[in-house]
Amino acid sequence: MLRDHKNFDFRDQIYYALGNVYFKEGNREVAVDNYRKSVSTSFQNQYQRALSSITVADIYFEDLEYRKAQSYFDSAMIIIDENYPDYETVSTKYKGLTNLVDNLVTVEREDSLQRIANMPEIERESLIARIIKEEQERLRNEENLAMQGTGSQGYNRSNRNRLGMGNQQAGAGWYFYNPQTVSYGRVTFQQLWGKRKLEDNWNRANKGISTEISEEGMEGVDSTQIVVREQDPLKKEFYTQDLPLTDSLMAISHDKIRDALFNAGKIFKVDFTNYPRSADSFEDLNRRYPSNIYLLSALFELYDLYELMGDKQKSDYYRNMIISQFPKSNYAQYLVNPNFFVEMQARLDNLNNLYQETFRNYKAGVYSNVISLSAQMKTMEPDSAMIPKIDFMNAVANGTQSGVQDFEKRLENYVATYPAAEPTPLANEILTLIRDSSLNDYQKLIDLGYISEEIKNDELLTENQNAEDEFGGKFTYDEDLLHYFVIAYPREAKVDLNRLNFDIANYNIDHYTKVDFDIETENLDDKTAFVIVRSLDNKENALIYHGAIIRRASVFRALKDVDYLNFVISSTNYRAVMNEKSTVDYLKFFVKNYSRYIRSNFTDEELEVSPEELMARAKEQDNILREKGKFVVVSTGAEKLFNTNIDTTQNFVIAIKDKSISTRQLLNDFADFNKNEFRLWGLALQLKQAGDYQLLVVNGIPTLNESMSYFRKVVVTRSLFNSLGQSIYRNFLITNENIQKLIEQNKVDEYIEFFRNNYIQKTPAQTGSTENTNATPAPNEPATQQNVAVDGPKPKEYEGPYSENIDGKQLFVFVIPVLDIDQPAFISGINQFNQASYANLNLKVDVQPLDELRQIVRVTGLPDRETAALYFTKVVNNRDLYVPLRKGNYRNFLITEPNYVVFLREKNILDYMNFYKRFYLEQ
Question: Helix/strand/coil (H, E, C) string of 348-408?
Fold first, then answer.
């Protein structure tokens, strides 16, 4: 039949029928070969093409050949739509396989890139030259074929057939007349853009922004996204543009591998129940990265996997490892005591009730009860976030029962112990009253409103009810209250609460590294029970959490075949539901004001970003009322626009008051400057807008002190600003929080005054600056390139934070990267060197962290400066010692013990190296 020309258009069906015959006979290999031929010859019959693709994909899936299965499911998804039989099953497999293959490809790709990046430069150049030569040869061959009339014809014919526009298909000359090509285009579009509503500006996240945006005016565009990528495979840059050739890029590459291995392990386990492959992925993760951020979760997954596979020996191995290495973790507690989560919930319920009782007594002024209740709570090991609140109530209660001097001392001790706690501003205000003799007895606290007015707790607040709505004012519309995620289920259902709570806790650990949730249970009435996840800052974060967790069907395995509800609710509305003993009205309120409440309809679609990142992006609200007795001092006046807490990561900003000028050259100049002068920091560039200003933002400067060094270095490097010509511009430093406020409210001019007061005019002790920099003009002065530079001669006398007395005992310090080095080998080499050359000094080597990117290896025991100088010379000349540092950037220097204390506080290696060159090297 295949040889008969009249059956040419039916080859796909013939091959498919042959495949079925061979498959029934048990000859899978030949059957698969015929199914594949059916796919490759199917151009007109899209149903047959889909059927053949899905058939061969299912066989590969059964054989655990996931990449081949994904490829054929992909071919099918180009064609089929929601009306295809069993579409949901095919779509689910396709999504899971695509996610899995993406992670597997990431590991292979980054491994390959790292291997090439770690090659000696000559070897790497030779490899690239060979690839380019092969590409040139391939292109020449194609040109020869094209000249012979064979290559292009075959190519064009295959593409025309691929898109269903072959001559055999009458009436299919135009793309949109062919349903197969339309389906292909739809799927390709959705893969790139997702499902988008047909509307104006469909391709923009912010529909209010005009599409007429200049290249330099795109707010929030990262420089890595605006740099044009090399597309010519005959150029060297085509092959080097993705290589991780710097420490920061290599660290990013390792992070990609780490995340992909963890994700692949989860997918193998949850989506495909391929336990051996899942275990291999987690073990590979821990082997490559012994201290990775997923270590505890990966160990528990391995314990659970080997338990599921019936390998008791390995399961016990990982169980014992978790218990011994992480004894305080919930995982370990659960493994020791299977009823841990149930018992923990009971303890938390008791603790929360006791806390509320303590707070009520505190507000009522019954301080003797507060003292006894707070002592009782401390014995119950409360959460660390609750301890400062308990201790504050205890300090006030004990203080009001004694003299004013004792009260003052207790508050001073509290402030010293909890300098950043929420009640600390209130403690300082009460201290001021005591010191000013304005507080003669504790009754003044009530008279002045420090108890009944200014300390607020949202569990006890009287809400502003809207009595005019359809719910009779029963529920509050306040979006800034604390919210809970609630699962409501029938009490009569046989639900494994321990398993459910553990799965929720496991999900929270995996996806919220900076948020510590409480999971509790409570009965609504004799028919319905709640599982409650507390607490989410506001409605927006609650909906992010809700939308993310309901995508994870594995979290709700304990509720299989149970009719249950999921919803989020504010703390105030939760109390209303509990008082009424009914969810009927609230669910109507929830559907109307939040979203549809969910039963068991899940989707496996992954979020583009993690829910924690979405929550971090959400705009922070001022004076959010906190749950469970968190104290809030009510502001009586307008708060400052910008946060004065600037001792954190900084951005350097050039604000250009000219929206028409191109910033491309400025971007390139700063990219080169950062690479040459500050490579270790891995700085990034962004373009943003604020009112009439274009903002070039250099982000990622590690500390305040180092940002001042960066600032001084930039403003004296005048060539960086040549591309701006005569344009008016300003430069300043700013934190992430303050730049968000600056952009949202268009407050560039106002921020200049803040910058001058809080950065430039600070004393060296406050900022770590050693120069009086006057680089930024006053707000009312026009800022040009002439008045930005630092003027005047450099002071002859040293005015920095370090002591000029450098005699006496010395430390030899290495500042080295955290990643991409062999730290154990490096330390071992130093110890061997010390033993061989300085055994009589009994030198010690230890390691201390400096910041997220760098660490300190410190050699102690050098008795004086002369011995230290000789030691320094021998170390720096012994290049074998530095081999374990690979290509990492490092610094080494001598330093006295007092100056080392200053260095750890300042964390500014540039300032100290200037000091070191001046006083040690006399340069």
Answer: HHHHHHHHHHHHHHHHHCCHHHHHHHHHHHHCCCCCCCCHHHHHHHHHHHHHHCCCHHHHH
Name the band, by pLDDT with cuts 50, 70 and 90, for residue 151. very low
pLDDT band with cut points at 50, 70 and 90 for residue 830: very high
Residues facing 698 on adjacent strands: 652, 685
Dihedral of alpha carbons 146, 149, 155, 159, sign: positive
Q: What are the C-alpha distances in Å from 886 to residues 119, 816, 881, 890?
A: 12, 11, 11, 10
Question: Distance between CA atoms of 659 and 748, rounded to whole angstroms?
Answer: 14
- pLDDT tens figures, 601-646: 333 444 445 555 555 544 333 333 233 333 333 332 324 678 888 8
Per-residue model confidence as pLDDT tens digits over 545-600: 887 888 777 888 888 888 888 889 988 888 888 888 888 888 878 877 775 434 33
Q: What is the 3-state secondary structure (H, E, C) of 398-444?
A: HHHCCCHHHHHHHHHHHHHHCCCCCCHHHHHHHHHHHHCCCCCCCHH
40 or 897, higher pLDDT: 897
Which residue's structure tokens are 């929080």?
737
Position 560: which residue type? K
Q: For residues 116 and 904, give the distance between their C-alpha atoms in angstroms, rounded to a whole number.
A: 37
Q: pLDDT at position 605, please?
A: 43
* pLDDT band at residue 394 under the 50/70/90 scheme: confident
Element (H, E) at 859: strand 854-862
Nearest to 783 by CA among 653, 649, 688: 653
Measured CA to CA, the distance from residue 216 to residue 667 in angstroms comes to 10
Query: Distance between CA atoms of 731 and 30, rounded to whole angstroms?
Result: 70
What b/e readout covers 672-710, taking b as 16+ CB neighbours within 10 angstroms? ebbeeebebbbbbbbbbbbeebbbbbbbbbbbbbbbbbb
Q: Please state, in angstroms and rounded to a whole number, the distance separating the CA atoms of residues 663 and 620.
A: 31
pLDDT, the chain, mean = 75
Q: For residue 462, name the pLDDT band (cuts at 50, 70, 90).
A: very low
Give the highest mean pLDDT range of 44-58, 205-219, 436-450, 673-687: 673-687
678 Cβ contact list (under 8 Å, min separation 6): 710
d(CA 515, CA 498): 21
Whether the pTM exceeds 0.90: the reply is no
- Which token pair is 516? 């510590």
Taking 80 as the threshold, does the pLDDT of residue 882 lie above it? yes
Residue with tokens 């200014």: 454
Asked whether the beta carbons of 746 and 691 are under 8 A apart, the reply is yes
Identify the pLDDT of residue 611. 57
Taking the CA atoms of residue 91, residue 94, residue 95 and residue 99 in that order, the dihedral angle to the nearest 10 degrees is 180
Neighbours of 194 (CB within 10 A): 9
- Which residues are CB-contacts of 392 (< 8 A; sequence separation ≥ 6)? 414, 418, 421, 423, 426, 427, 631
Which pair of structure tokens corresponds to residue 841? 């000094």
Listed residue (300, 294, 224) closest to 263, CA to CA? 294
Segment 380-403 shows an average pLDDT of 80
Q: Are the C-beta atoms of residues 572 and 635 closer than 8 Å to each other? A: no
Residues facing residue 569 across a β-bridge: 484
- First-to-last CA distance in the chain? 90
Residue 894 pLDDT greater than 90, yes or no: yes
Q: Please give the backbone phi and psi of residue 656, each rounded to the nearest 5 degrees, phi first.
A: -105, 120
> DSSP 3-state assignment of 502?
helix
**Cα 627 from Cα 485, distance rounded (Å):** 14
345, 520 Cβ separation under 8 angstroms: yes
Distance CA 343, CA 337 (A): 9
